[in-house]
Specification:
Layout (H helix, E strand, L loop, with lengths): L1 H15 L12 H5 L3 H15 L14 H12 L4
Helix pairs in contact: 1-3, 1-4
């Protein structure tokens, strides 16, 4: 889990143009990092490509912080928690 969380942190940081250390597990993407919906779609797209999975766009509202992005990705990828 830890390794994949850090991989996701790097993807999110890249999309938001921040350093990975700046992305906290519970920092809200919109409020804390001023991300818009386009960035959310970019994060979703990069996760799909990296892990070769499909994440429904209906999951986007659920993906508000790093921890929730990990949970959605894990669910779609079938990772064991």
């Amino acid at each position: 889990m830890k390794q994949k969380l850090e991989e996701i942190r790097e993807i999110v940081a890249d999309v938001l143009e921040l350093e990975p250390a700046e992305i906290t597990d519970l920092g809200d993407f919109r409020e804390t990092y001023e991300a818009d919906s386009i960035r959310g779609i970019e994060i979703l797209s990069r996760l799909e490509k990296k892990y070769m999975i499909e994440i429904p766009q209906s999951a986007l509202p659920e993906m508000q912080n790093l921890q929730s992005v990990y949970k959605v990705t894990a669910r779609c990828a079938g990772w064991q928690e």
